[in-house]
């Protein structure tokens, strides 16, 4: 079909790193493109495909290989082995996929790649395609990694404050954990720092953020890259008035206990419930888990706690039964529906970037308990820049004690100080909506991208 006249305006292939926190924002971006008549092919690993619980209908799904089709990352001897095999086998199988689509008269125009898979850029260029980088983390975090990549931040860090133009002064603990904890995950650090490798060369650079949220950082990054914010990529039914009828949620790797959560939330008073979740990857140590359990109990508030099946054994014995009146523990929930519920009063979060943006966009105050990677930087911004939450203070062993959890919850939910946080949360909710609304900063950036796809340079 001729572009612009037939079924679609252009064809983009989306290449996410195969974890929930990266698939969600890329898919939601894809949905906004699809709404503008861009055909979308989603490339996922064979293993991820075999574990998927939901299949979005607005994309064509194709598989590539990470070299571990039977078990994914868990079947690799080390992360290094996984990363290297995925780079090689992923690039080979993606090339074959592009060739096959071309032969089917369904050629791809642009690869939108997750910079964790920076080889996506090489494949695009070898195939003569446009390449768009899609950062799934904040501009602030990308900017920090850029300065490490350029050697302008030297590792290991000293105790001095870190000054980067466009960012507030940072203590080492405010940088991503892979940076401030020397040698903690060398391969992951390499992968994260190398995300910025193609920053100047890619045809577009997108970030799941919005201009008003990170204005100073984005303006400062303009010296070396024109990043285009296209977020928050919250599913349309929660935020985007243009797509209100679209009820399709996305692609879930875990099965949510939707009915149980909704039923339970319906019984609770407005703004009374604490929602607790540490995302799809973070592992909470047994001692920390116990303190959190004690803190929630001592708060004497109602709570909905997501404890993934792999973490369940760390809960105190009989805890769920003992607290069944006050708390509901589930292995996965429909997080956006939970955050959007009027019963929600506060979110105890690890500050993964999606969770942070989702809470900001739905006006939910946060208690930040960062675990690793970019979460410490997100927590810094939540507490000190956007002021929509408070960051917990760990003790000298790095554990956030029950008393500290109670203190933070009282501050955010009950006291006068919490009022400012609640007002800010509402302010950011409004601004997030405006960014994706017709003519908003993110909406305009997406329009410009689609228009450029329809009129490629000759
Ligand atoms: C990872 C990293 O850990 C994070 O720091 C990075 O910014 C993105 O990738 P993850 O730890 O899973 O992500 O956290 P987060 O970014 O918050 O993403 C989790 C996603 O799962 C969110 O979109 C959230 O809505 C969803 N979720 C979480 C559910 O749908 N149900 C749940 O029960 C828990």
Automatic annotation (TrEMBL):
Top-rank taxon, per record: Eukaryota
Class of this enzyme: transferase
Family: Belongs to the UDP-glycosyltransferase family.
Transmembrane annotation, as ranges: none
Catalytic activity, as annotated: an anthocyanidin 3-O-beta-D-glucoside + UDP-alpha-D-glucose = an anthocyanidin 3,5-di-O-beta-D-glucoside + UDP + 2 H(+)
InterPro entries cross-referenced by the UniProt entry: UDP_glucos_trans (IPR002213), UDP_glycos_trans_CS (IPR035595)
Keyword annotations of the record: Glycosyltransferase, Signal, Transferase
Job of this protein: Catalyzes the glucosylation at the O-5 position of anthocyanidin 3-glucosides to form anthocyanidin 3,5-di-O-glucosides using UDP-glucose as sugar donor. Anthocyanidin 3,5-di-O-glucosides are molecules that are responsible for pigmentation. Also acts on anthocyanidin 3-O-(6-O-malonylglucoside). Much less active with hydroxycinnamoylglucose derivatives. No activity in the absence of the 3-O-glucoside group.
Record pathway: Pigment biosynthesis; anthocyanin biosynthesis
EC numbers, comma separated: 2.4.1.-
The protein's name in its UniProt record: Glycosyltransferase
Pfam hit, one: UDPGT
Keyword Transcription found: no
GO terms of molecular function: quercetin 3-O-glucosyltransferase activity; quercetin 7-O-glucosyltransferase activity; UDP-D-glucose:delphinidin 3-O-glucosyl-5-O-caffeoylglucoside -O-beta-D-glucosyltransferase activity
Transferase is among the record's keywords: yes
PROSITE patterns reported in the protein's UniProt record: UDPGT
PANTHER family (UniProt xref): GLUCOSYL/GLUCURONOSYL TRANSFERASES, GLYCOSYLTRANSFERASE
């Amino acid at each position: 079909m001729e572009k612009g006249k037939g079924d679609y305006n252009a064809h983009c292939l989306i290449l996410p790193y195969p974890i929930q926190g990266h698939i969600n924002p890329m898919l939601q971006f894809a949905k906004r493109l699809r709404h503008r008549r861009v055909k979308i092919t989603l490339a996922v690993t064979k293993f991820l495909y075999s574990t998927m619980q939901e299949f979005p209908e607005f994309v064509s799904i194709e598989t590539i290989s990470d070299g571990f089709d039977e078990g994914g990352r868990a079947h690799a001897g080390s992360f290094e082995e996984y990363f290297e095999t995925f780079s090689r086998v992923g690039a080979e199988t993606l090339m074959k996929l592009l060739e096959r689509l071309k032969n089917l008269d369904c050629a791809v125009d642009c690869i939108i790649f997750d910079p964790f898979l920076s080889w996506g850029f090489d494949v695009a260029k070898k195939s003569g395609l446009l390449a768009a980088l899609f950062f799934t983390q904040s501009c602030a975090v990308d900017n920090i990694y850029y300065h490490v990549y350029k050697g302008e931040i030297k590792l290991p860090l000293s105790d001095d404050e870190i000054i980067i133009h466009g960012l507030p002064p940072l203590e080492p603990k405010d940088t991503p954990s892979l940076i401030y904890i020397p040698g903690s995950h060398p391969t992951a650090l390499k992968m994260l720092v190398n995300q910025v490798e193609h920053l100047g060369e890619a045809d577009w650079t997108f970030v799941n953020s919005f201009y008003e949220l990170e204005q100073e950082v984005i303006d400062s990054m303009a010296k070396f890259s024109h990043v285009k914010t296209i977020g928050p990529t919250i599913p349309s039914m929660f935020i985007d008035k243009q797509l209100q009828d679209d009820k399709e949620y996305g692609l879930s790797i875990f099965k949510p206990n939707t009915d149980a959560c909704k039923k339970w939330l319906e019984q609770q008073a407005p703004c009374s419930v604490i929602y607790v979740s540490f995302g799809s990857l973070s592992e909470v140590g047994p001692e920390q888990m116990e303190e959190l359990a004690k803190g929630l109990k001592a708060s004497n508030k109602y709570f909905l706690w997501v404890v993934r099946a792999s973490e369940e054994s760390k809960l105190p014995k009989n805890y769920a039964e003992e607290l069944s009146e006050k708390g509901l523990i589930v292995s996965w929930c429909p997080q956006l529906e939970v955050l959007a519920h009027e019963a929600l009063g506060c979110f105890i979060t690890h500050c993964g970037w999606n969770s942070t943006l989702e809470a900001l966009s739905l006006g939910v105050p946060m208690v930040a308990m960062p675990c690793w990677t970019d979460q410490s930087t997100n927590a810094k911004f939540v507490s000190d820049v956007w002021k929509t939450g408070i960051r917990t203070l760990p003790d000298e062993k790095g554990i956030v004690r029950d008393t500290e959890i109670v203190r933070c919850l009282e501050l955010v939910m009950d006291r006068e100080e919490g009022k400012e946080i609640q007002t800010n949360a509402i302010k950011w909710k409004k601004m997030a909506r405006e960014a994706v609304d017709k003519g908003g900063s993110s909406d305009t950036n997406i329009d410009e991208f689609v228009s450029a796809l329809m009129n490629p340079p000759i």
